[in-house]
Amino acid sequence: MTRPQHVAVIGAGVIGSSIAAALEASGVEVTVIASDATGTGPVSRASLAWVNARAKTPEYYRQFNADARARWTELALPWFHATGARADGEDFGPDGWVDTAAAIAANLASVSHVRVETVTDTSALREEFDAVVVAAGAGTAALAPGSPRLSTTTGAEGYLVRFAASDAPFDRIVSIKGLQLRPDGEGRVAAQSLTIENRLREEGVTATAENVWPALRAEILAATGWAPPADTAVTINRAHRTHPVDGLPVIGWVGGVYAVVAHSGVTLAPLLADLAARDLLGDEDPRLAPFRP
Ligand SMILES: Cc1cc2nc3c(=O)[nH]c(=O)nc-3n(C[C@H](O)[C@H](O)[C@H](O)COP(=O)(O)OP(=O)(O)OC[C@H]3O[C@@H](n4cnc5c(N)ncnc54)[C@H](O)[C@@H]3O)c2cc1C
Prior knowledge:
Layout: E1 6-10, H1 14-25, E2 29-34, H2 42-46, E3 50-51, H3 59-75, E4 80-81, E5 85-87, E6 90-92, E7 96-98, H4 100-109, E8 113-116, H5 123-128, E9 131-134, H6 140-143, E10 154-164, E11 173-176, E12 179-183, E13 188-193, H7 194-203, H8 209-224, E14 234-242, E15 250-254, E16 257-261, H9 265-280
Parallel strand pairs: 1-2, 1-9, 2-8, 5-11, 9-16
Antiparallel strand pairs: 3-7, 4-7, 5-6, 10-13, 10-14, 11-12, 12-13, 15-16
Helix pairs in contact: 1-4, 1-9, 3-9
The chain binds flavin-adenine dinucleotide.
Protein name: FAD-dependent oxidoreductase
Enzyme class: oxidoreductase
Domain FAD dependent oxidoreductase: 6-76, 113-277
């Protein structure tokens, strides 16, 4: 394949926008095509956005996440908050969290063209561009047919609660038995509880601020000894996790497009972007081998 000059990237989330920026930085003219102009759709808003390599198996996948975390550290971008984490009594110094809206905005500002369009079929785009990258999150399965690993890319629905609190007694990510808390900018906290998430799913109930906040506040108090303010304004964002069939990333050519989809997409974004951009330009990294479609 000759070096592509003009590439379409379908998807403006943290993965698509990162790949688009990496390709543009390599001298490719990139057009991002997405249903939403900003990429900050429900998934990035609901994401805890914890950059970590914890509880990942098999080992090559854990190492892939550790390499991606090291890339975040190396880049030292202002939207990566290198706070470290404490998870069930263990410290994870290199961890941090990402302001996904700021990351996506900076990526999109660096590409040549952004087109707002919902794609149902990639055949016309494959005629128009030298290569088409599909990084459409949960929408990837529908646009990149032909791999059993991509028979679905939609996982379980999760949520993230945000609230104002001037006295939160932690300045890093804290995870205690499925309760996860982190700073969310000055005077703000982001939180989720997998216990509450699983209970609501079993009951067939959609998470709302009204049915999550009282239980979440009680769980935070029981786990940390800190009582979040009772009268604070609480917002909640819900989204289905992006999840290939086996839970591992999918990166490579399938059905005439180059598909990139991953569950830990915030953690992996800068590494995926570098490796995918190099791959598209003919420089294949051996770390991609286990993740082919
Ligand atoms: C509750 C929750 C907690 C999470 N916690 C973490 C965490 O702590 N750490 C971590 O690393 N990851 C976490 N994740 C996962 C991470 O947020 C996702 O992997 C990542 O945001 C996915 O980014 P993406 O760019 O692939 O997809 P998305 O952000 O979903 O973006 C998809 C893009 O594709 C576009 N699109 C889709 N279909 C089409 C179409 N047909 N035509 C045109 N455009 C289309 C959309 O408009 C959007 O621009 C979490 C996710 C959830 C839901």
